[in-house]
Specification:
By secondary structure, this protein is an alpha/beta fold. It contains nine helices and twelve strands. About 35% of the residues lie in helices and about 25% in strands. A five-stranded mixed beta sheet has the order 4-3-5-12-6, with helices on both faces. The protein has a five-stranded mixed beta sheet with strand order 9-8-10-7-11. A two-stranded antiparallel ribbon has the order 1-2. InterPro entries: LysR_HTH_N, LysR_subst-bd, WH-like_DNA-bd_sf, WH_DNA-bd_sf.
């Protein structure tokens, strides 16, 4: 089946005017060419669309059904150039965001709200992945923007600090360290079983904890990569764990939180990360929208 938009426009005009002469005047053409357009359309469709008479033209049942789709096709065709321009300008289209599990606690919601309020016609696709996987996905053009932990290859990627926070200690409910009335010190942790970050899959947090705290590796009972897994293990009374303060928003029974002594102010960093060779027009206005989120 083949037909042109000119045929659809002619058909809709006749259907609405119920008269070939009036429809031709509306389209700034004479009646014979319009009649031929409609005849060709009927031939392509394989059905009679009008009952023609001396008083005008009325839609057949087939014509009534075809009118619904014809209007839809014309509306789509009229919107297509504007949508193409909006996509090219980054005001419409899609944005693929990778995020670490811990960024869900506050930062991701704020980012999605900022993008949604500013760019309502940009559809956001989310993928949870650790920083190393985000870097690989950016290199493969599988995501456009990451919420990731440093360090980064500054030749390949641009980044912007979006959030920082302190580390806190997660302990089982009723644990002595939760009721000290003061920040927990390294000496307090000397004989505590530790749930630690895996050095391969959670390198950022592993290096951060090792740098800030004198960890006794003999005390490490589990090494995992996801913060929510650490907290569940603490709830099971397997040990204590160092987690970003935003994790305290998780409502898990059987855990408590304690402040840590001696750490620098808000050492945990989260960055926006994107490729310097990105091709998605929506990324630039999205980054502008995210300017309102300050570390």
């Amino acid at each position: 089946m083949e037909f042109s938009f000119a045929q659809l426009e002619g058909f809709v005009a006749v259907a609405e005017e119920q008269h070939f002469g009036r429809a031709a005047a509306r389209l700034s053409m004479t009646q014979p060419p319009l009649s031929r357009l409609v005849q060709k359309l009927e031939h392509s469709v394989g059905a009679k669309l009008f009952d023609r008479g001396t008083r005008g033209a009325r839609l057949t049942r087939a014509g009534e059904a075809f009118l619904v789709d014809a209007r839809r096709l014309l509306a789509l065709a009229n919107r297509a150039p504007d949508r193409a321009r909006r996509v090219a300008a980054g005001a419409a289209g899609y944005l693929r965001i990778g995020f670490t599990g811990a960024s869900v606690f506050g930062v991701l919601d704020a980012a999605l709200t900022a993008i949604g309020d500013t760019l309502p016609d940009v559809h956001v696709e989310l993928s949870e992945m650790v920083t190393n996987d985000q870097v690989a996905a950016l290199n493969r053009d599988e995501i456009d923007l990451g919420l990731a932990r440093p360090p980064f290859d500054t030749d390949a990627f641009a980044s912007r600090l979006i959030h920082r926070e302190p580390l806190v200690l997660c302990v089982p409910g009723g644990h002595r360290l939760a009721d000290l009335g003061r920040p927990v010190t390294a000496a307090d942790l000397a004989n505590e079983p530790l749930i630690m970050y895996a050095p391969d899959n959670a390198r950022y947090f592993y290096d951060l904890v090792i740098r800030l705290l004198p960890i006794a590796h003999r005390n490490v009972v589990h090494s995992v990569s996801q913060i929510h897994t650490m907290i569940w293990l603490v709830a099971a009374r397997r040990g204590v764990a160092f987690v970003p303060a935003s994790a305290t928003r998780m409502t898990i029974d059987g855990v408590a939180w304690a402040e840590l002594e001696g750490q620098p102010d808000a050492p945990v960093e989260l960055h926006l990360l994107w490729s310097r060779t990105h091709t998605n027009p929506a990324l630039v206005p999205a980054l502008q929208a995210l300017e309102i989120i300050r570390a």
